[in-house]
């Protein structure tokens, strides 16, 4: 059976199952407005599926969930920033959590190896040349998931489209054990008017 | 209690709960490589949390999950394309599903209203001016979640960084009932060499 057929079969079974009854019973007042006023931004990693949300005590109807490879911000108006802007101004989000995870695949990837794999699969060199510099800037700078969380908090915190009264927290998740640790407490971190970063706990962060 | 404190408390309780034992028992061979070789790209909507994955029969360890506002592709090397590139060339993904959903918030938003809200919240006009054209192109073109699914499938299908032998399916999800319908069957849709789109079922698609 094809993957698409498997998904459609699973959906048909789901629609007739007790699981969907239970979901409906537990979420009768659910709307597109997250009732905990929270947006989380995390990684696409498959170990987080059906694991991160329960590990955070997050349920349907409570938060907006944004995910990409390595919870990466790739520009000042990248889709994650747009998603946060819509979340804040249209959907009542008042707080943001960035959740990186240990053993993130992106921290093990290099642009050189990836390009070799793309070429050997028949991707055109011209297409690769169009994105090579951006690929290097992204993959070859991503060495450590904790540093990436700090960098992403910083990028969001400094983005002039994000109101300064929105706390931006940085957390790190263990995708095997389920444990969560704080990297940046967004209630304590502030931005100076000119965009220079300072945090009450900046010295502690340097040591993580 | 602050939202951050709530999340940390929930995590502490989770770590000592039976839920985590059950998750570990059910996912002993989980790694970063999705064992169903599938990546899904869907919306950040909170109604999908803990709902879309069970509705698709998807479990931890099986798929990569990418999410943003309106499952939008904002450029030829936007973070979603990067996430798919890494998924395919580094993590063994062989198939892609785009899953839009009915009543998507993005289809009800306009750039004009959003900009008014941003200005009244104190966001600088200069910052808004830097992104105004992109915001219009994104929000004011997004009228219908099904059309958006077709457009996103088309953008991925035509992207020269995505191998042509990777099926790209388009699905639409009902965020209230949990039902899934096929918009584009990626096994039947092909791209001509010069990038013109044709689908075996293109006439049917026009009528959805």
Describe this protein with a few key phrases.
homodimer; alpha/beta; 5-stranded mixed beta sheet; two-stranded antiparallel sheet; 8 helices; 41% helix
Account of the 3D structure:
- The structure is a homodimer of 208-residue chains.
- By secondary structure, the first copy, chain A, is of the alpha/beta class.
- Helices cover 41% and strands 17% of the residues of chain A.
- Chain A folds into two domains: 1-30; 31-104 and 142-207, Carbonic anhydrase (Beta-carbonic Anhydrase, Chain A), CATH 3.40.1050.
- In chain A, helix 5 runs antiparallel to helix 6.
- In chain A, 45% of the residues are buried.
- At the A-B interface, helix 1, helix 2, helix 3, strand 2 and helix 4 of A face helix 1, helix 2, helix 3, strand 2 and helix 4 of B.
């Amino acid at each position: 059976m094809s993957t698409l057929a498997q998904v459609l079969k699973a959906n048909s079974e789901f629609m007739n199952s007790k699981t969907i009854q239970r979901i409906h019973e537990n979420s009768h007042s659910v709307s597109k407005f997250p009732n905990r006023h929270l947006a989380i931004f995390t990684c696409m990693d498959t170990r987080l599926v059906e694991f991160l949300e329960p590990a955070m005590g997050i349920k349907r109807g409570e938060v907006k969930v944004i995910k990409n490879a390595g919870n990466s911000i790739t520009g000042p108006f990248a889709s994650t920033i747009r998603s946060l802007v819509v979340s804040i101004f249209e959907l009542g989000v008042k707080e943001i959590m960035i959740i990186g995870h240990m053993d993130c695949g992106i921290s093990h990837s290099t642009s050189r190896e990836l390009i070799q794999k793309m070429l050997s699969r028949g991707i055109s060199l011209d297409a690769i040349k169009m994105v090579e510099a951006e690929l290097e800037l992204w993959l070859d700078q991503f060495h450590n998931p904790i540093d990436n969380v700090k960098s992403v908090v910083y990028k969001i915190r400094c983005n002039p489209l994000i109101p300064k009264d929105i706390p931006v927290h940085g957390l790190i998740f263990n995708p095997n054990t389920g444990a969560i640790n704080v990297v940046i407490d967004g209630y304590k971190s502030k931005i100076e008017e000119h965009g220079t970063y300072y945090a009450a706990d900046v010295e502690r962060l340097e040591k993580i």
